[in-house]
Design a protein that fits this description.
With about 350 residues, this protein is of the alpha/beta class. It contains twelve helices and 15 strands. Helices cover about 40% and strands about 20% of the residues.
């Protein structure tokens, strides 16, 4: 299937191109106290290792703004400052080397203060993400629409866009986030018909790892399938590394980008003759850290097992207290059940050159 990407303008966040046909970029946000710049840097490096390409940190006060400069000097990937309520923090972050800033113009302090942010961003050619959240739509729009409808969110975004354009600034990326999947999808669809700025996708406050992954896969996945979206963040109540696993799984499932292991495993049934579930759980935990694109199959019986295993780069198909190891479509060996996982991991280490255990 070929995707027809929405044609958007291109900006650059640091050295990463956004929009204009560039690959969909994976972002995340730290959950450390930004004022503790050392622990923040350590987390950023872990998240980068897990696949993060652009990172955002909360700049919540003057101390955090001061730490921002130390963080910027200590990392490799582009750094975005997330600002609310105080335009001066946006100024400080840009002066400290921010590659981009994220603001909600509706809560930053009024038009004059937003203009001060725009003036410095324009001078330094720093992109600004205009973030519209369903929880912070302007009061007059809530009165007009009754609640944060897609129409209210889009009108809010267009209002901010016009203000930026009136001040001769176009290095803009837009996000329209709601915790409601349908509202998120409809909002982006509607705005896509009205502007060509690049979009940052996400279902905000999506929830824990399982529920958040489901909501993000639906909301972000639907939009990407329609060609809408230039960057994404999967927002989970979990460590940012978990966000990377889900984000790359979404991109890989849609065949938009390839990184890491696609794990194919059967749900088990009465035909399964090995204890498959713990094998799969252990394999997934180990393989989360693999960077090389690879399709791995772990199947439990002879019905679909051999076929799926043969279609994978490497796989196992269970039998009675043993399993068949397949590699690149060929049967390699019969392996005792207790040795299956170790043998599979060893094969993957040889194929990728990555140390897994």
């Amino acid at each position: 299937m070929e995707y027809k990407r929405r044609v958007s303008r291109q900006i650059h966040v640091g050295d990463v191109p956004i929009g204009g046909g560039a690959p969909v970029c994976v972002q995340s946000m730290t959950n450390t106290d930004t004022r503790d710049w050392r622990s923040t840097v350590e987390q950023i490096k872990r998240v980068e290792e897990a696949g993060c390409e652009i990172i955002r940190v909360a700049v919540l006060d003057e101390q955090a703004a001061e730490a921002f400069a130390m963080i910027k000097k200590s990392i490799r990937i582009p750094l975005i400052a997330d600002i609310h309520f105080d335009y001066r923090l946006a100024i400080r972050a840009m002066l400290s080397g921010a590659d981009a800033i994220r603001i909600n113009p509706g809560n930053i302090g009024g038009p004059e203060k937003v203009k001060k942010v725009i003036d410095l961003a324009k001078e330094r050619k720093i992109p600004v993400r205009i973030g519209v959240n369903s929880g912070s739509v302007e009061k007059d729009l809530l009165a007009k629409y009754g609640h944060p409808t897609p129409e209210a969110m889009v009108e809010s975004a267009l209002r901010h866009i016009r203000f930026f354009e009136d001040n001769d600034f176009g290095l803009i990326k837009i996000s329209l986030k709601s915790s409601d999947v349908i509202t998120t999808i409809q909002s982006y669809r509607l705005l896509a018909t009205k502007t060509d700025y690049p979009f940052h996708l996400g279902v905000t406050e999506a929830g824990t790892v399982v529920s958040g992954a489901i909501k993000s896969a639906l909301g972000v996945g639907f939009l990407l399938l329609e060609g809408i979206g230039d960057t994404l963040r999967v927002s989970l109540t979990a460590a940012p590394e978990e966000e990377m696993f889900v984000a790359w799984s979404i991109l890989r499932a849609l065949k938009l980008r390839q990184r890491g292991v696609e794990l194919v495993s059967c749900p088990t049934c009465g035909r399964t003759e090995i204890d498959l579930i713990p094998i799969v759980e252990k394999a997934e935990a180990l393989l989360k850290h693999v960077k090389t694109p690879l399709k791995v199959a772990i199947m439990g019986c002879v019905v679909n097992g051999p076929g799926e295993a043969r279609e994978a780069d490497v796989g196992i198909a269970g039998g009675r207290e043993s399993g068949i190891l397949f590699k690149k479509g060929k049967r390699v060996a019969r392996v005792p059940e207790k040795e299956l996982l170790d043998r599979l991991i060893s094969e993957i280490e040889q194929m990728t050159g990555e140390k897994i255990r």
